[in-house]
């Protein structure tokens, strides 16, 4: 997949084929509904048509030693995720 910086240019020039017909046909087989729709809209779509499939997601985490940053200023510690994944809730 081209990066989203080039998606508009490639789509406008006709260098990419919209995937919408294939998504409609194979939606269940590829579990399309499990893919984050915001990610599809923001990264893989242009003018309402889908041109790519997201295949990578980053989760950036900042770990601080205890007693640093805001914990010294009296604010509470962040709550941990208990679900194991920040994925979209159903």
Number of helices: 3
Coarse shape: elongated
Strand line-up across the major sheet: 1-2
Give the SSE order as H and E letters.
HHHEE
Distance between the termini: 27 Å
Class by SSE composition: mainly alpha
Overall mean confidence score, pLDDT:
77
Number of strands: 2
How much helix, percentage-wise, in residues?
25-40%
Determine the strand fraction and express it as a percent band.
Answer: under 5%
Give the biggest beta sheet.
2 strands, antiparallel
Provide the gyration radius in Å.
Answer: 19 Å
Low-pLDDT parts are none
Overview of this structure, please?
The chain has 90 residues and is mostly helical. The protein has a domain of 47 residues. The protein is built from 3 helices and 2 strands; from the N terminus they run αααββ. It has a two-stranded antiparallel ribbon with strand order 1-2. The two termini are 27 Å apart.
Characteristics of this structure?
two-stranded antiparallel sheet; 3 helices; 90 residues; mainly alpha; single chain
Helices and strands, with pairings:
Elements: H1 4-12, H2 20-26, H3 37-43, E1 45-46, E2 49-50
Q: What is the gist of this entry?
A:
Helix content is 26%, strand content 4%.
């Amino acid at each position: 997949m081209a990066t989203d910086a080039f998606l508009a240019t490639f789509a406008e020039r006709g260098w990419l084929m919209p995937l919408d017909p294939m998504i409609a046909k194979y939606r269940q087989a590829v579990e399309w509904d499990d893919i984050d729709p915001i990610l599809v809209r923001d990264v893989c779509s242009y003018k309402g048509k889908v041109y790519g499939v997201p295949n990578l997601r980053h989760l950036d985490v900042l770990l601080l030693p205890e007693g640093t940053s805001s914990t010294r200023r009296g604010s509470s510690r962040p709550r941990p995720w208990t679900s194991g994944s920040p994925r979209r809730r159903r």
